[in-house]
Amino acid sequence: MFNMLKIGKKIAELRKKANMTQMELADRLGISYQAVSNWERGNSMPDISKLPELASMFEITIDELLGERVQLVTSAAEGGLDEYMENNEISPEEIRSAAPLLKPVQVKEIFEKKGTNNIEKIAPLLPFLAEDDINRFLEKAGEDGETGAVLQIAPFASEDAIRKVAEKWSREKQSIKALLPFMSEDDVWEFAQQSLAEGAPEAVLDFLPFMAEDEVGKLAIECYEKEGTEAIKPFLPFMAEDEVGKLAIECYEKEGTEAIKPFLPFMAEDEVGRLALEDYKTGGIEKIKPLLPFMTEEDVAKLARMILE
Predict the structure, then answer these.
(1) Are 273 and 257 in contact (CB under 8 A)?
(2) Each residue of 43-79: b (16+ CB within 10 Å) or e?
(3) Which of 13, 39, 45, 257 is the most buried (most CB within 10 A)?
(4) Is pLDDT above 70 for 235?
(5) What pLDDT is recorded for position 257?
(6) Distance CA 176, CA 203 (A)
(7) CA-CA-CA-CA torsion for 189, 194, 200, 202, nearest 10 degrees?
(8) For residue 7, which of 57, 73, 51 has the smallest C-alpha distance?
(9) CA-to-CA dists, residue 258 to 49, 184, 304, angstroms
């Protein structure tokens, strides 16, 4: 990557050597003096279209101005990007250095020429592409079955574009697990329901970290009603505390204290305490021992006083 502070210092030195003020340099370049000031302080870089003009004005090369040789930048600045790409292999390092200076249309041009099959090489360009172009490249990679490219592009794409790829993968019975971190909660919920409807409850577990708590609760209740307590254990860490409590009480009333052990780490302490006090009255201390680590100190003390009495 280019060192903005060094480039800014170089521009300031060249300007002073030419006996020019920031305002004079700005006027000659057709920009604001604030832009020149920002360059010289290392806060920003000159627009790529200004590099040939700056280099010519100070009678140096673009490479000398930037402090390093990146032919990709020079070619783009001088309008020879197409020719350079035709005749040269572009390295990932060259792309990484050039990307912050390139205009979005130039970034798009490189991306189109090199193709998503070279995604590892051109990935540094992704933050500099317009979102519409990113979405188009994502959808093309999805259509072409280039899974690696899809996963590289996904963090920069819109949720709508990611949904389209997810729909395609889902139709083809391909796992969408890798896309879930980039999808909206609504879309995650919809695909989770679809997995359940298709009779693949184990696949739903992949969706849980990316779902809203209330939706996890709905699926947990559905699984509980179909398959019992054991089936909902994976859901518990992703559920709201009050939903865990409601389901725990339902299990408790049907199956007793033993059935709620998986719920305890995810329940509100006062809820555990209430159940413990009830159980103590009917089953004694042995029955409630598993509940003690999940109770408040106040409830444990209350229980201790009951035992002593």
Answers:
(1) no
(2) eebbebebbbebbebbeeebeebbeeebebbbbbbee
(3) 39
(4) yes
(5) 78
(6) 10
(7) 0
(8) 51
(9) 72, 37, 21
CATH 1.10.1040.10 fits 1-69, yes or no: no
**Tokens linked to 101:** 């200076």
Q: What's the mean pLDDT in 167-183? A: 91
Distance separating alpha carbons of residues 25 and 278, to the nearest angstrom: 83
Single out the residue of 123, 122, 118, 121 nearest to residue 156, CA to CA. Answer: 123
In whole angstroms, give the CA distance from residue 233 to residue 52. Answer: 64
141/145 Cα distance (integer angstroms)? 6
**Minimal CA–CA distance to 72: which of 51, 46, 102?**
102
Kindly tell me the burial class for residue 221, based on how many C-beta atoms sit within 10 Å of its own C-beta (0-12, 13-18, 19 or more): middle
> Over the stretch 246-260, which tens digit does the pLDDT of each residue have?
888 888 888 877 888
* Domains of the chain, residue spans: 1-69, 130-177
- The contacts found for 291-295 with CB under 8 angstroms, 24 or more apart, are 291/257, 291/264, 293/264, 294/264, 294/265, 294/267, 294/269, 295/269
**Tokens standing for residue 289:** 């021992």
